[in-house]
Specification:
It contains 15 helices and 2 strands. The chain is mostly helical and 316 residues long. It has a single domain, classed as Orthogonal Bundle (Farnesyl Diphosphate Synthase). It has a two-stranded antiparallel sheet. The longest helix is centred in the middle third of the chain and has 27 residues. It is globular, with a radius of gyration of 20 Å.
Length: 316
């Protein structure tokens, strides 16, 4: 655990160093006031998987830095799409400095992410471009299906594109740079499922702990995002009718009235659909375990399994 914390600190320091170069050039911008590193899940995954593949710490760090930069850029863009005022207990950049600033700064972070891995070869950098494209595809599918109840398969496709793409870029890069391409498929499966589990957990928490996680209350459903707990609830015909009615009402709102979203959240908790979604996610963890066993032998294999379980058991 100490090694992971030390690695995370190195990643944070590198990001601080990258951003300090623009600190004085951008009005109203301060690295300390802006950057919130959150849970550092991608860095932790990069550290553990890189250790299993015996990849040097320096290369792992570059991959982790770019993954966190691209992830943060996507959050800045998401906050603008969703109109979010809070994230991680702090006011969003969108709220403090405006939508234009947040979008442009997100673009800047993306460029830093790409530039940071240029020295690692064209395949690593081009695959990061591909990952960012897949994230955008997922966001567009999600936007196109807003306020609609989508099948489970569509939901899983959306979160695979939006969230798993960075995880799979990490696993692909580690396989390429370590010269152990024979493990590519196993590592890819672990990474994809890690992203899916992480996002399902995030979507569950939106209903279970709204207002306690530092996010806007019931942000997903208020933005028309129908996530897994809602989808599972809608297998009941009467519940589906209720959700469709409330979604229509939310879509027509011209002001932030939470009552419709609160009603859906109450039904989810009363019916235990949040726990059903958690069990659904556990299947992805179980499906990952055979792939974990096909990775290179390492003393960190138990730590990777623990990491996968921690993605679902977190409380924020």
């Amino acid at each position: 655990m100490k090694s992971i914390l030390s690695f995370s600190d190195c990643v944070k320091n590198d990001i601080q160093r990258i951003l300090s170069g623009v600190d004085s050039e951008i009005p109203n911008f301060s690295v300390d006031n802006f950057i919130s590193f959150g849970k550092g899940v991608r860095s932790r995954f990069c550290y553990i998987l890189g250790e299993i593949f015996s990849l040097s710490q320096e290369k792992r760090k570059k991959i982790a830095v770019s993954s966190e930069l691209l992830h943060t850029a996507s959050l800045l863009h998401d906050d603008c799409i969703d109109g979010s005022d809070f994230r991680r207990g702090k006011e969003t950049l969108r709220r403090r400095l405006g939508t234009n600033f947040s979008i442009l700064f997100g673009d800047l972070l993306m460029s830093f992410a790409f530039e940071n891995v240029e020295s690692m070869g064209p395949k690593v950098s081009s695959h990061l471009v591909y990952a960012s494209r897949e994230m955008a595809r997922g966001a567009l599918i999600e936007e196109g299906t807003a306020y609609s109840i989508v099948p489970e398969e569509t939901y899983v496709k959306i979160i695979s594109l939006k969230t798993s793409s960075i995880f799979t870029w990490i696993s692909n890069s580690i396989c390429m740079l370590s010269g152990k391409m024979e493990f590519l498929n196993a590592a890819f499966q672990v990474a994809r499922n890690a992203g899916i589990v992480f996002q399902i957990a995030d979507d569950i928490l939106d209903f279970e702990t709204s207002g306690e996680t530092g996010k806007d209350m019931l942000k997903d459903i208020m933005g028309g995002k129908v996530t897994l707990p809602v989808i599972l609830m809608c297998k009941d015909r009467q519940k589906r009718d209720l959700v469709e009615q409330k979604l229509r009402e939310i879509k027509q709102l011209n002001y932030p009235d939470l009552s419709c979203a609160v009603k859906i959240a109450e039904e989810i908790k009363k019916g235990g659909y949040d726990n059903m979604a958690r069990e659904y996610a556990r299947r992805f963890i179980s499906n990952s375990l055979p792939a974990v066993e096909r990775l290179p032998q390492s003393s960190l294999i138990p730590q990777l399994k623990e990491f996968l379980h921690s993605l679902l058991e977190r409380e924020k």
